[in-house]
Design brief:
Distance between the termini: 49 Å
Helix content: 10-25%
Number of strands: 11
CATH topology of the largest domain: Alpha-Beta Plaits
Shape: elongated
Mean pLDDT: 93
Order of helices and strands: EHEEHEEHEEEEHEE
Number of domains: 2
Low-confidence stretches: none
CATH architecture of the largest domain: 2-Layer Sandwich
Strand content: 25-35%
Largest sheet: 9 strands, mixed
Amino acid sequence: MREQPEQQAPPVQRLRIRYAKRGRLRFTSHRDFSRAFERAVFRARVPMAYSSGFNPHPRISYAGAAPTGSASEAEYLEIALAEIVDPSAIHTLLEESLPDGLDILEVVESKGGSLSDTLEASHWQLDLAVDADLASAAVAQFMDAEEISVERMTKKGLRTFDCRGAVRSMTATPTGRGARLDVVLVHGVPSVRPDDVLTGLAQVSGLEPAAGGTLLTRAAQGLLLEDGTIGDPLA
């Protein structure tokens, strides 16, 4: 009979981490980031708890990752530890071990429950190289629509879905380079991304930002509050 693998001790502490993807590092895929983070916890000698089985791996839970190419100030993950540590010390160790652009913003002790369940919606800022008046008119047309079907290629092939239903609110304000759209997107299945919203805007209004002039940034992610704002999932 095959020898059974050693069973690992259960974690004694869980930490939740908010990090940012900035600058050129916004083009880091989720898989690339997970590899970089695992190397960082190894270099920083974080006392990770490991899974049981023939191929133990560090207990890291990722939640609500932003699409590749999008910047973010609100990415979250949770790590399980084999020792009780000071969250501020882990913050410093990880900050020193990750490259600039993948920045640790906050480390707190988990109070239990599911991290994914606290990530109900996101506030996105879409910076577009487009006339602000045209952007405002496009937003009005989008919000007046009951349903806007868009297509996106997924791992399961081309998929058609409604992008309007996921948009809780959207406003346009002028900027020095064009317009900024502030969009609150409710998470769901299928997940509606900010680029789907841009596709929907183009479909209903013909709005087409200048090539290379679009920057998508997730400003916040968390619980959807009654007033339509986003609550802090680490509070």
